[in-house]
Backbone:
């Protein structure tokens, strides 16, 4: 029996529970969600590609544009962001709004976890990898010198808004990369889920409804593991299988 994915659900967390909501209008969602004092951290590439979606929000709220590079994920590059937040009046009761892919997520999550001993943050993931995988799970990581993702912790967003329309701008190779990363969730879930994934895979490149369902189901599978092993000590480690093959 095939599982019908849920497009709005709550992830249970030892830190704080958080909601995942699928949307189809980023501009409207921002206008409804943003509150006085909120500060937007946005990938410069996303800001340039979707100016009409963000024009109003960026005109009315403080924001910082970042270049989504591995260099940005470092103490040296995070420090000026924290400095600007404090200088411009960001307070403990204000929220960070992250718009971008995994690097924007890591930078914002790391800052949110340490600033004033923890502030609320919301996430609008814009890449397939972020939408179908990294947006849930609580992990925050930045690089330390030449060592990747060696500094961080666990600090989930308070809410995640997933809009698959961001994926219209992705190249075929980027789509393959994101779908390939999600594949291991369907393998772990069992034969039925994996067979459906294989059937739907070709359509995911052209059919947004199919892609949306794959993203939602991928998150549901991951959710079932992180809710019993949020800190990646036991059951959740099954998802690390294969990640070290390139170092052999």
Residues:
């Amino acid at each position: 029996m095939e599982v019908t994915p849920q497009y709005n659900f709550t992830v249970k967390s030892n830190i704080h529970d958080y909601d995942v909501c699928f949307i189809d209008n980023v501009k409207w969602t921002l206008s409804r969600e943003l509150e006085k004092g909120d500060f937007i951290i946005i990938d410069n590439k996303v800001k340039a590609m979707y100016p009409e979606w963000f024009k109003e929000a960026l005109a009315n709220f403080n924001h910082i544009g970042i270049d989504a590079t591995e260099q940005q994920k470092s103490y040296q590059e995070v420090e000026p962001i924290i400095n600007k937040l404090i200088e411009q009046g960001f307070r403990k009761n204000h929220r960070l709004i992250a718009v971008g892919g995994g690097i924007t997520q890591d930078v914002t999550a790391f800052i949110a976890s340490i600033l004033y001993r923890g502030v609320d943050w919301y996430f609008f993931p814009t890449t397939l990898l972020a939408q179908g995988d990294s947006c849930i799970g609580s992990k925050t990581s930045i690089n330390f010198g030449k060592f990747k993702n060696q500094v961080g912790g666990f600090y989930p967003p308070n809410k995640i808004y997933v809009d698959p329309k961001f994926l219209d701008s992705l190249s075929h190779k980027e789509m393959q990369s994101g779908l390939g990363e999600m594949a291991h969730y369907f393998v772990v879930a069992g034969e039925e889920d994996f067979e459906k994934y294989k059937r739907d895979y070709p359509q995911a490149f052209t059919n947004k409804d199919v892609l949306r369902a794959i993203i939602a189901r991928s998150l549901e599978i991951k959710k079932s593991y992180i809710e019993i092993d949020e800190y990646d000590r036991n059951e959740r480690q099954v998802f690390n299988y294969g990640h070290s093959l390139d170092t052999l």
Observations:
- Residues 208-226 form the longest helix (19 residues).
- The chain has a mean pLDDT of 93.
- The beta strands are 8-11, 18-22, 39-43, 62-66, 95-100, 120-125, 139-144, 147-154, 159-162.
- The CA atoms of residues 119 and 167 lie 29 Å apart.
